[in-house]
Design goal:
By secondary structure, the protein is an alpha/beta fold. It is built from five helices and 28 strands. Strands 3-6-9-12-15-18-21-24-27-28 form a ten-stranded mixed sheet. The radius of gyration is 20 Å and the shape is elongated. The mean pLDDT is 96.
Length: 262
């Protein structure tokens, strides 16, 4: 159902069983996947592709112009994965270049009043809480939860199944499976509840994660030495490999109060 009171550009590609409510705005050069629903006063701007069964609530703007002086008006893009929910007054900016683009993965939930900056990549099954602010070029891995009013600064990287508690400001890299809280940001433990109940990790895997982060966050040693200890003390398992890869990929730069002070 497409309301005659909505604006839908004739060049927009509209899939099957799409519902577009009155006063929604669908720009040119957009793709709306099968089963999507666009609520009143929501806007889907040019260069945006919505996967199947995406729901965009009132006042949200998906694919807004990037807020970066490097963008000079050229073509740029925004991609939203299948089954993702975008709540009221969310703003998601497109990328700043013709390649890449801003991406929100499938089965994710973006709560009201949040802002996702240009060229940010959010993986599948993430939860972005109310009033979260995500700067440009941020990377968020699978299963991450950002509680309300979290702030992620430019080029931060958040690892798999991390949980960042409300109001926390992140300006570095949060390794996988951790909980971070407070300002300055502090390591708060392992995200064991989500790992166990929602991601199918075993108790042995969770124990390995806890051991690894004791070396990184709870021993008075450098990150470099902590990685050597992890390789010595913990069997070579997928969770150990994920942690080691993340830390090395991000040049040993991690969020956490003891690193912020260095």
């Amino acid at each position: 159902m497409i309301s005659p009171l909505a604006y839908v550009d004739p060049s927009a590609k509209i899939g099957k069983d799409v519902t577009i409510h009155p006063f929604a705005y669908i720009d040119a050069d957009t793709t709306i996947g099968d089963g999507c629903e666009i609520m009143p006063y929501a806007s889907v701007i040019h260069g945006t592709t919505l996967g199947a069964k995406v729901k965009v609530y009132q006042g949200a703007i998906v694919g807004a112009d990037p807020q970066d002086f490097r963008w000079k008006g050229g073509p740029s893009f925004c991609y939203i994965g299948d089954n993702t929910i975008i709540r009221e007054h969310v703003i998601i900016n497109r990328g700043i270049a013709a390649d890449g683009g801003t991406r929100v993965g499938a089965d994710s939930f973006v709560f009201a009043d949040s802002h996702i900056g240009h060229d940010t990549h959010i993986a599948d099954k993430c939860v972005i809480g109310n009033s979260v602010t995500i700067a440009g070029d941020v990377k968020i891995d699978e299963g991450t939860i950002l509680s309300s009013s979290v702030v992620l600064h430019e080029r931060s990287h958040i690892g798999k199944f991390a949980l960042i508690k409300g109001g926390t400001r992140i300006s570095s890299n949060v390794p996988p499976y951790t909980i971070m809280a407070h300002n300055p940001v502090t390591y708060y433990g392992v995200n064991s509840v989500v790992m166990r109940k929602h991601a199918g990790f075993t108790e042995a895997q969770i124990d390995d994660v806890a051991k690894a982060y004791r070396h990184i966050y709870q021993c008075s040693t450098s990150v470099f030495n902590a990685l050597k200890r992890i390789e010595t003390d913990i069997d070579d398992t997928p969770v150990r490999a994920e942690i080691l890869h993340f830390v090395r990929e991000n040049n040993l730069k991690l969020a956490g109060d003891r690193f912020e002070a260095e």
